[in-house]
Amino acid sequence: MALRLSKRHARRLSMTSLIDVIFLLLLFFMLSSTFSRFGTVDLMAAEAAQGTSGETRSLFLRLTPDQISLNGEVVAVDAIEARLVSLRSDRDAEETQVLVSLAGTVTSQRLVDVLAVLRQQPKLAVTVLG
């Protein structure tokens, strides 16, 4: 017994539905994305020193990819705040200048982490050296 198999005809692909799908995807991604800033970090460029009436205490923070040293003493990121408090305890009324020096290939995320800790301290002026 011979069976006749009918040949299927290929249907033309409609481009109209494809364009509609692409438009809807584009619209979805445009409306679901955000265009706002997540956070900003204020940086102050180093300037020439000017005479001031008050005395300013300076601290030196060296930031490398592997470690952080504050006035030559190696500290961890979470211990920076406690170390700053101990260094500034005797001179609470004065403003403290912190010079941040970058050495090696420090990532921007590491710098932002350190600046976020420094930003929490009152009367602290932070200058990032290039």
Which class of secondary structure composition applies to the elements? alpha/beta
CATH class of the domain at 57-129: Alpha Beta
Helix % is 25-40%
Main sheet summary: 5 strands, mixed
Q: Kindly report the oligomeric state of this protein.
A: single chain
CATH architecture of the domain at 57-129: 2-Layer Sandwich
Q: Short description, anyone?
A:
With 130 residues, the protein is α/β, with parallel strands linked by helices. The protein has 3 helices and 5 strands; from the N terminus they run αβββαβαβ.
Characterize the structure shown.
It contains three helices and five strands; from the N terminus they run αβββαβαβ. The protein is an alpha/beta fold and 130 residues long. The protein has a domain of 73 residues: Nucleotidyltransferase, domain 5, CATH 3.30.420. The protein has a five-stranded mixed sheet with strand order 3-2-1-4-5, with helices on one face. The radius of gyration is 30 Å and the shape is elongated. The model has no long low-confidence stretch (mean pLDDT 79). It is found in: Cell membrane. It comes from Tritonibacter scottomollicae (Epibacterium scottomollicae). Keywords: Cell membrane, Membrane, Protein transport, Transmembrane, Transmembrane helix, Transport. This is Biopolymer transporter ExbD. It is a single-pass membrane protein; Single-pass type II membrane protein.
How are the SSEs placed, and which strands pair?
Elements: H1 15-32, E1 57-63, E2 68-70, E3 73-75, H2 80-88, E4 96-102, H3 108-119, E5 124-129
Parallel strand pairs: 1-4, 4-5
Antiparallel strand pairs: 1-2, 2-3
